[in-house]
Amino acid sequence: MTRVKEVLNRIDATRVWQEQLYRQLHSHPELSSGEAQTAAEIAGRLQGFGYDVKHVGGGVVGILANGQGQTVLMRADIDALPVTELTELPYASKVTTVDESGATVGVSHACGHDVHVTCLLGAAELLSGGRDAWRGTFVALFQPAEETAAGARAMVEDGLTDKVPRPDVAFGQHVLSHEAGVVGTQAGPVLSAGDSVKITVFGKGSHGSMPHMSVDPVVLAASIVLRLQTIVSRETRPGEFAVVTVGSSVAGTKSNIIADRAVLLINIRTYDNAIRERVIASIERIVRGECEASGSPQAPMFEYCDQYPLTDNDPEVTEQVTAAFRSYFGKGRVIELGRVTASEDFSRVPDAFGTPYTYWGVGGFAPGQQPYPNHSPYFAPTIQPTLDAGTEAIVVATLAYLGQEGS
Ligand code: ZN
Ligand code: ZN
Questions:
Q1: Closest CA to 35 of 98, 103, 115, 109
Q2: Which residues fall within 8 angstroms of residue 40, CB to CB, at 6 or more apart?
Q3: In 20-168, where do the E strands start and end?
Q4: 268, 194 contact by CB (below 8 A)
Q5: What would the pLDDT profile of 178-214 be if each residue is shown by its tens digit?
Q6: Could you say which of 79, 195, 344, 345 is catalytic?
Q7: Per residue in 257-313, pLDDT tens?
Q8: In CATH, which of 3.40.50.1980, 3.30.70.560, 3.40.50.970, 3.40.630.10 is domain 2-189+310-402?
Q9: Fold: same for 2-189+310-402 and 193-307
Q10: Can 79 be counted among the known catalytic residues?
Q11: How far apart are CA 305 and CA 314, in angstroms?
């Protein structure tokens, strides 16, 4: 604990620029895969803190080698969302963009990734300034495009594992609607795997008055939608978790025309890879079976997108980090996070190295402040103690591996 205090005793100075930077990032959000200015800001600061800086797949990685010891990687995501901010904060985002349909929409840090960037940069400076108190290598990884499930994959595909030393342990964190100053940990699965699939099934078009000349894709799609409900209710063991949602079912244009195809958009959430694979196999089996039953003239098409891996916290790493949190924050500020049905692409980074990891939550709302969920246009964490807690959590978890006596 003395080593943690040694590193964190400069936080008063760090906090001053962190709060300024946070407001600046919050009012200048950038959408997924377009985070050029945010990445440049990060790279410049890391250089100033004495880090070896690498640009990988649209992200930025800072490496601080500080003698013999283990390697710890901490990841922060940096992208914003196409959400029009409705807070009345003086630093609220006024940034807009034009979406695919030509409509103007706001851009904001409605998921709080600006908190993640600010906390990791703060911890990076503290660990650099306090390097006499620890040994090993600290890797600060800033990942683009979390919200589109593309960023972690892009960094891995751009050779992340060749460009960055293999970490012995990896961490990620997210600001959530819990009370500010609180951190939450969870061993095992913490965020669900998320998959989306676009399914096109084919019929035979006809006049609405001549159904005998058709294979009706509306009836086919309706059968599929009903039958899909049995995957969770009849095929999944009671008590096990799976979600299968048909978010969209579209066919046809007019009452007197039988269309030639229907398109279904399906979302899947699971906490277990075996269940995930079984659910996907069941969906494909049911769709193919119903197409066969209706005499569909062409095999169905399955297009998978927005695929998020399971976030499955290593029990030993989680225990070690939780113990360090309890000893620093006190038991009252460390909660059991529980499972969250949201999804993340964080785990692609440690999985690429074969590194165990833990991903924790940080509260962002003051007592008495109305908490809003992530992605809400009103999502606006209180600056303190949120930034302090997020910064301290990174330093405490890192020194649980790099700050041991004698190491
Ligand atoms: Zn989000
Ligand atoms: Zn997020």
A1: 109
A2: none
A3: 52-56, 59-66, 71-77, 96-98, 104-106, 136-143
A4: yes
A5: 999 999 999 999 999 999 999 999 999 999 999 999 9
A6: 79
A7: 999 999 999 999 999 999 999 999 999 999 999 999 999 999 999 999 989 999 999
A8: 3.40.630.10
A9: no
A10: yes
A11: 27
Beta-strand relationship, 334-336 and 183-185: parallel
CB distance 364 to 373 below 8 Å? no
Tell me the β-bridge partners of 261: 202
Q: Which CATH architecture has domain 193-307?
A: 2-Layer Sandwich (3.30)
Say which DSSP state 173 is in. E
CA of 145 to the centre of ligand 2 (A): 10
**Tens digit of pLDDT for each residue in 92-142?**
999 999 987 888 999 999 999 999 999 999 999 999 999 999 999 999 999
Active site residue 272: no
* Exposure class string for 210-249: b at 16+ Cβ within 10 A, else e: eeeebbbbbbbbebbbebbeebbeeebeeeebbebebeeb
The catalytically annotated residue of 35, 114, 146, 216 is 146
Work out the pLDDT band at 404, boundaries 50, 70, 90: confident
Length, in residues, of the chain: 407
Q: 83 near 108, Cβ under 8 Å?
A: yes
Residue 407: predicted pLDDT: 41
Q: Enter the tokens of residue 191.
A: 């965020």
Pairing of strands 136-143, 71-77: parallel
Query: Residue 181 corresponds to which tokens in the numbers above?
Result: 């100053």
Cβ distance 60 to 53 under 8 Å? yes
Cα 46 to averaged position of ligand 1 atoms, centre (Å): 25
- CA 167 to centroid of ligand 2, rounded, Å: 23
Q: What digits encode the pLDDT tens for the residues 270-283?
A: 999 999 999 999 99
Give the ligand whose atoms come closest to the C-alpha of residue 78.
Answer: 2
Q: Does residue 381 surpass a pLDDT of 50? A: yes
| Domain range annotation of the chain | 2-189+310-402, 193-307
Residue 385: asked if its preceding bond is cis (omega within 30°), the reply is: yes
Of 375, 377, 317, 305, nearest to 350 by C-alpha is: 317
